[in-house]
From TrEMBL:
SUPFAM superfamilies: Protein kinase-like (PK-like) (SSF56112). Pfam families: Pkinase. The lineage of its organism: Eukaryota, Fungi, Dikarya, Basidiomycota, Agaricomycotina. GO terms for molecular function: ATP binding; protein serine/threonine kinase activity. This is Kinase-like domain-containing protein.
Length: 449
């Protein structure tokens, strides 16, 4: 007979789409059930789950007062005094400018059996998730890349650094979502997948009655508002929980190691020091690694254990401070980094970018190399990068190209054909995108054109 500990106290089967139920405890996540209303007086009706992170769950909700749909980020109780609210307030865009940071609409506190939770009411965005192949994913154009740099320039203009730049923290604005009625959303998305949870001993009040799967916002938009395919992307940067005002004490860097700047990655992996200092220059490196991944849906560095070596290969140098570390972790096969080796690696990268249909691959490589400097002092600022020749010909309010589809699922094809969108000139294209196979070889991947 199975014992309770085998199930970690839960009578359920763990699935990847759900937040870990152990997060629901005193000081932890807020138990939510679909259809409930939050706010005082109640104002936001929860419609669907949009996602979850290490410290929060995020829900689509209908705002009864402003009659629009919004995103509610409900922060776990123990983290709810964090500075994300202050950061978002500092980063409100002036009315005259297109926002580049996700916009805060309201904030309040909500009490549950697990404590007091901060609730951040934000515009809904479609996060660019590289690892969920079923979703609609836009091709990242030169204009979209420029917008990600503009986001960093804006954050810097407020004296701040982000500290958690990775592809999952970028999204595209989807104002189309705001206008649907609750019933229309439920009808269009279909019955949400839920997972009943039952804890065998803890207080039932700590848990929601079920966990909800994430709503597929891409498929929803394609069936409910396919016209969103016809407009340029408007990028937003998300998750300001780790941002700080430079000059004050930085919080612990949160960036996943494969996206972290060398000064952070080296401290964490070689020195076991999780409190490395970081600033806006670290964001520039992380953004380079991130836009590489956004542009070709494949990270430049794959493995945490080899990330420092790969950094040295791509930058063509060995920093003096890293030599001691190399005594215990020598380069594989004795290949020592140097400028010629780095040039060769980037040449191959450029060829790969060409196969991925990236605009001006040589220019894109030059931009990345400017940003990826091991020495933070050598990295240009975001404002300097906005003037990089790669962006020549793009103007401040230039919409850029129409987004195209990648990794099209049946759902997308169905939506496209039902709406007749495939007949719209220039809206979609079928192209071959190389894709990384299991063994690291590039395979072909057919896409709508
Ligand atoms: N405004 C939004 N609109 C739609 N989805 C959102 C929005 N904000 C966040 N999400 C989704 O919720 C997920 C969790 O959000 P976020 O990353 O801000 O949470 P977190 O708890 O601070 O997590 P972590 O620090 O682990 O990234 C995101 O990955 C994204 O998928």
């Amino acid at each position: 007979m199975s014992t309770e500990s085998e199930y970690d106290g839960f009578m359920y089967c763990e699935l990847p789409d759900y937040e870990p139920p152990s997060g629901y405890a005193l000081g932890g996540l807020c138990p939510i059930r679909l259809g409930c209303e939050l706010g005082s007086p109640p104002r936001y009706r929860v419609i669907a789950k949009l996602g979850y992170g290490a410290y929060s769950t995020v829900w689509l909700a209908h705002d009864r007062v402003d009659k629009r749909n919004v995103a509610l980020k409900i922060v776990e109780a123990r983290t709810s005094s964090s500075n994300e609210l202050d950061n978002l307030q500092r980063l409100q865009a002036p009315d005259t400018e297109e926002p580049r940071v996700v916009q805060l609409l309201d904030a309040f506190e909500h009490t549950s059996p697990n404590g007091r939770h901060q609730v951040l009411v934000m515009e809904p965005v479609y996060p660019i998730d590289l690892f969920w192949f079923k979703d609609f994913r836009p091709v990242i154009t030169r204009d979209a890349l420029r917008q990600t740099i503009a986001a960093l320039a804006f954050i810097r203009s407020r004296g701040m650094a982000h500290g958690d730049i990775h592809p999952g923290n970028f999204g595209m604005a989807v104002p189309e979502v705001e206008r649907f009625s609750v019933v229309d959303i439920w009808n269009l998305t279909g019955r949400p997948k839920v997972q009943v949870i039952l804890h065998t001993s803890h207080s039932l009040g700590s848990f929601p009655p079920y966990l909800c799967s994430k709503m597929d916002l891409g498929a929803f938009l394609l069936s409910g508002a396919p016209e969103f395919m016809q407009r340029p992307l408007s990028m937003r940067i998300l998750d300001l929980g780790n941002a700080y005002v430079v000059g004050e004490c930085p919080p612990r860097a949160n960036t996943p190691i494969i996206y972290a700047a060398p000064e952070v990655a080296f401290a964490c992996t070689a020195l076991n020091d999780l409190d490395a200092t970081w600033d806006q220059r670290s964001d520039i490196w992380s953004l380079a690694v991130c836009i590489y991944a956004l542009a070709c849906y494949h990270p430049i560095f794959k493995f945490t254990y080899s990330v420092l070596h790969e950094m040295m290969y791509y930058c063509g140098e060995v920093p003096d401070a890293w030599r001691e570390y190399l005594r215990s972790e020598p380069f594989p096969d004795g290949i020592v980094p140097g400028p010629a080796h780095a040039d060769g690696l980037w040449k191959k990268t450029e060829q790969y970018f060409s196969r991925c249909h990236i605009e001006n691959p040589a220019g894109f490589v030059r931009l990345l190399r400017r940003m990826m400097q091991l020495d933070p002092a050598k990295r240009p600022t975001a404002v300097e990068l906005l003037r990089d020749p790669y962006f020549d010909g793009l103007h401040e309010h230039d919409g850029g190209d129409v987004p195209l589809l990648r990794d099209v699922s049946n759902v997308v094809l169905r939506a496209v054909y039902l709406t007749g969108l495939h007949k719209a000139r220039g809206a979609l294209r079928l192209v071959d995108i190389p894709k990384c196979g299991e063994d690291g070889d590039w395979q072909s991947n057919t896409v709508l054109e």
